[in-house]
Design a protein that fits this description.
seven-stranded mixed sheet, alpha/beta, 8 helices, Rossmann fold, binds zinc ion, globular, six-stranded mixed sheet, Metallo-beta-lactamase, Chain A, 24% helix
């Protein structure tokens, strides 16, 4: 039976992040620690300078690429495999967020906590789907934890982009994407919907695309924008970090039509502020429907919410008969 006071004695919030005392490790620590368990490679979860890092081999490769010698001594753990750290058993299971993303399943003396990191529930061709784990405490983010956030199906958003290419065949379609995860997912979704032409890219995006391909995610032909004449980019898809639209680099594009792929594109005002002509609501985070469906699936004894729109989700959990509380962890900002 769940005893919250005992639980909080073995897993607690510290200034460096969530700390598991009987295992002597931190999960996604915000400053360097002797032993870290890292859920995935995004910068607010994976940071340099730890002595030892336990994660999936994909996440470790992403950290190695980003931090080089500062990535920490790697300890790979495959999905589903369990390992003992001190008196605790740790298992990693897919979170469906980006390549290598995992939930950390932590068992100690008959109690189980699941730290989900970031996750989503819809199909993503670049990573295995989220697997619900029964547990006493489920720790979730709530980036899109408001009922107004309901992301439309990805297929429709990709259709919008393909339709725009037909309507404006003389304009380069510049799609702003986050370099890790969103970029490769947008490419994979385009390929799945039959887009076989080369996709042109900003130089900053190649390294992680190559890493994805090394792990078996096929992305099709990708070309550097600066290697081709401007005229060749008319009616083509160009991917770049969201900030690139306002940089001198963008002068290489003929009459660019600016799109952006992000869950925040659901908010019209945000799209307008950023000068986005074609907002594409494609998110790597669970929307309200996915968050509440996940609580239903996991049926935790208790829900802890790390960051985001915590209050609405805590209220909703209460309506579902689940005790919930805000951890108010700092240092997490969503990469979208
Ligand atoms: Zn993330
Ligand atoms: Zn995050």
């Amino acid at each position: 039976m769940l005893n919250p006071s005992s639980l909080q004695s073995w897993l607690r919030v510290t200034p460096k992040g969530l700390y598991c005392e009987p295992g002597d490790f931190f999960i996604d620590p915000r400053s360097p620690v002797p032993r870290a368990v890292v859920t995935h490679g995004h910068g607010d979860h994976a940071r340099p300078g730890n002595d030892h890092v336990l994660a999936t081999k994909e996440t470790l490769a992403i950290m190695r690429q980003r931090f080089a010698d500062d990535a920490g001594a790697p300890q790979p753990l495959p999905y589903g495999g369990a390992i003992a750290l001190g008196d605790v058993s740790v298992k990693l299971v897919p979170a469906g967020h980006i390549l290598g993303s995992a939930q950390a399943v932590i068992d100690y003396r008959g109690e189980r906590v699941v730290v989900s990191g970031d996750y989503k529930r819809r199909v993503d061709p670049t990573c295995p789907p989220f697997e619900p784990q029964p547990c006493d405490v489920f720790i979730t983010e709530a980036t899109f934890g408001l009922p107004v956030f309901r992301h439309p199906p990805d297929t429709g958003e990709i259709d919008k982009l393909m339709h725009s290419l037909q309507l404006f065949p003389d304009r380069a379609h510049l799609v702003g994407v986050y370099a890790l995860g969103k970029c490769q997912r947008v490419i994979a979704l385009l390929r799945r919907q039959g887009y076989e032409q080369p996709i042109y890219m900003h130089g900053a995006l190649f390294g992680l695309c190559q890493l994805y391909e090394r792990f078996g995610v096929a992305l099709g032909p990708l070309l550097p924008v600066l290697d081709v004449p401007k005229e060749e980019l008319r009616g083509k898809i160009v991917l770049a970090p969201p900030s690139a639209a306002n940089e001198p680099w963008a002068r290489h594009l003929p009459d660019p039509l600016v799109a952006q792929a992000s869950g925040w594109m659901r908010v019209r005002q945000r799209a307008k502020q950023r000068g986005v002509e074609l907002p594409l609501v494609i998110s790597d985070h669970a929307d309200w429907t996915e968050l509440t469906a996940t609580i239903e699936d996991v049926k935790p004894g208790e829900l802890w919410v790390t960051h985001g729109a915590e209050e609405a989700l805590i209220h909703q959990a209460g309506k579902m008969g689940i005790r919930a509380r805000a951890l108010s962890l700092s240092g997490f900002e969503d990469e979208e």
